Amino acid sequence: MLLKELREKVYEANMQLPRLGLVIFTWGNASELDPETGLFVIKPSGVAYDELTPEKMVVCDLDGRRVEGDLNPSSDTDTHAWIYRAWADRGIKGVVHTHSSVATAWAQAGRDLPAYGTTHADYFYGPVPCMRGLTKEEIEEAYELNTGKVIVSGFEERDVDPIAVPAVLVRNHGPFSWGKDANEAVYHAAVLEECAKMARDTELLSPHCGPAPQYLQDKHYLRKHGPNATYGQR
Amino acid sequence: MLLKELREKVYEANMQLPRLGLVIFTWGNASELDPETGLFVIKPSGVAYDELTPEKMVVCDLDGRRVEGDLNPSSDTDTHAWIYRAWADRGIKGVVHTHSSVATAWAQAGRDLPAYGTTHADYFYGPVPCMRGLTKEEIEEAYELNTGKVIVSGFEERDVDPIAVPAVLVRNHGPFSWGKDANEAVYHAAVLEECAKMARDTELLSPHCGPAPQYLQDKHYLRKHGPNATYGQR
Amino acid sequence: MLLKELREKVYEANMQLPRLGLVIFTWGNASELDPETGLFVIKPSGVAYDELTPEKMVVCDLDGRRVEGDLNPSSDTDTHAWIYRAWADRGIKGVVHTHSSVATAWAQAGRDLPAYGTTHADYFYGPVPCMRGLTKEEIEEAYELNTGKVIVSGFEERDVDPIAVPAVLVRNHGPFSWGKDANEAVYHAAVLEECAKMARDTELLSPHCGPAPQYLQDKHYLRKHGPNATYGQR
Amino acid sequence: MLLKELREKVYEANMQLPRLGLVIFTWGNASELDPETGLFVIKPSGVAYDELTPEKMVVCDLDGRRVEGDLNPSSDTDTHAWIYRAWADRGIKGVVHTHSSVATAWAQAGRDLPAYGTTHADYFYGPVPCMRGLTKEEIEEAYELNTGKVIVSGFEERDVDPIAVPAVLVRNHGPFSWGKDANEAVYHAAVLEECAKMARDTELLSPHCGPAPQYLQDKHYLRKHGPNATYGQR
């Protein structure tokens, strides 16, 4: 069996999603890339979390084709694959998709998630962008692949660094997040949902308060990330 | 004892309702039809979930009359019966009623639940309609039966297919949902509540954002349903 | 030891409050009246729920004076006592006070809880009234006793029947509820919180939708209450 | 090992934070001062709660320097230290910082938390103030220390007594709370989050209702605090 250890890791990452309250039923999926082989392991499509096992995970290549496994891979496989194609060389080796409740509401509202405070700035350096919707043609031609393309080109066009902002809102759909492995991508999915709740309530309390000052965002992001980081144990 | 196996299934479906956070106390009921006998099994009225057993389930005919069981059937039995009468030949053999918190708020607000995103479109092909309120006469004459009639005729008048939109909001009351069995009806009740939360928050964040584009709804609904579905394991 | 059995019942009723998510820390209390002796059993003041025992419950008379027990009774004892004085002959023998989150928000907003739907009408026949605030003089003279007096006279002035509407919102403070025993008063406290959530969301979705039609409220209230009730097992 | 008993207490206080739903991941920290030695014990930086042990707690002096422990202390250590420097002689020996969801939203909105009712007044005598944001210079010079200075000088300038209002909202960041020990500081953090939720909902229901009357706030605060307190067991 290919990538036995990675199957375990990806299984564990997927199982965290319902535990963290980010998905119900089958509404999410996590994957991780093995950079040596260029293959990634992903959740099978439509399988309930309490029926998952490491063996049921599916191995795919970067064209989203199943390489090993009896089950169909997640319907979002082509989106994961494109993100790895574009950004694996930046160190992105884990991707997560959920329909977590409040982040999805921001995606449905078609709005960027503003950086209202330090909770956000500790993980996302600037707003989490909401992508343009796919066109009818993009959807009909290759929906899941084009979702990946809209994400990657959207970050390029808006000059957003996917390392500094490891999440996105797909218009009328929901969030994707990523990280150095599946576990970190899950972590970012949970942070995103929490920031989405706080930002919703912030606007209820003060609709026009504006984002946190840039120098505060700088301080928080840079005390956790980069060469001069001081947070945690180093 | 009639329909022993079905009693177990309906018992299990009912017990899922509090576990999924859809009901407290006795505020919900699930039933399932046995197409061979034309009888259905339903929760007894006003019995707490932790006192339920498969044996306490009540067997009724399609006039809502108790055929077997010591306990009175759910007060909503006539509504279930009418839905089976109208739609069993479409394959609808499970019905659920809850007072889940946010779906009920939409029903109290008297509003259709808009299809703001793909979470909704994966299960409901278009808005979940809110029915007109019953008249004083309809309520006094045969409240629960007429609730069923308003649902069925409301779907007809608005040309909504109950297979494509397996849930409804009853004005000032709360949601009903259905499916191919009681278990699927419970599933749709949970999806509805989740979509109701997301839609509430979507409107808080962008009051006039409008529904998801029709071609996106088409894509999501049709990738999970119908002859060309690709989602899950087939 | 006086009223041993009643201590057990009141202990159990108090322990339900944190389990139902209605109180944290020491923020609530339940009591029940023994009509034979004219005494009631109530939670001691400021004792955490996980340190409660039936023996720690306090027995008081209808002047709110401690008759048995080493601990001080709840600071709200005089409010409970006055409710029993006024309404015990109507069959009210259980009282509960909580600071449950959303019902308290309605009390802080100084607003009656409207009867937006059947969930409400199944238990409360009309709006749950919010009382006028106490005057400075009433607060300084006998705060807790006068809270009881404002409740009882408020129901009289507004011609609300405490049997038909077994709960109240005390302005800038929070809810009290009651019933035929402590257990039913707890039940009404939980229903009130759930209706308070639904009503908040109803107004977010449709600020001017107005209450449910009176004939629908009549139907629901009267199918659960009174001589012609059909709900449940009778 | 220094302050063995205090390490246990501070460990327990930290472990309460996720249990009370106030923090996820590593998003909070509790400390307590030992007045004899002038040292305080605090959570290590960036360590997950389920990996904490009493031995991993870090001992610091009032300049925020680590005196004992292998791990770096919380990145907020200098803020805790300054609060002890300023207010330990007032009896403040426990400090807590969280990013609890709704209190953080108030901080992001840049608004004082109004005293809308008695739940608030039982613990906070007046609004919980939101501090001015730190300047760019203050952030770049000594961010965490200056956060402490802005809190202490903010209370002085606004003439707020930190004993009567044992919590603060740091602009665009989140809440700090304090008390006579770490456990009481945790308690105040939980009360603050609950009051923040109630106040958000109060404004949704009645945007201009204004705070509770001063004489009601006086009654509630003074029945729990000071020489004439009657609440609880004394």
TrEMBL record, chains A, B, C, D:
Its EC number is 5.1.3.4. Coiled coil: none annotated. It is an enzyme of class 5 (isomerase). Its cofactor is Zn(2+). Pfam families: Aldolase_II. It catalyses: L-ribulose 5-phosphate = D-xylulose 5-phosphate. One of its GO terms (molecular function) is L-ribulose-phosphate 4-epimerase activity. Keywords: Isomerase, Metal-binding, Zinc. It comes from the Bacteria. InterPro entries: Aldolase_class_II_sugar_metab, Aldolase_II/adducin_N, Aldolase_II/adducin_N_sf. SMART domains: Aldolase_II (SM01007). Residues 8-200 form the Class II aldolase/adducin N-terminal domain. Belongs to the aldolase class II family. AraD/FucA subfamily. This is L-ribulose-5-phosphate 4-epimerase. It comes from Paratractidigestivibacter faecalis.
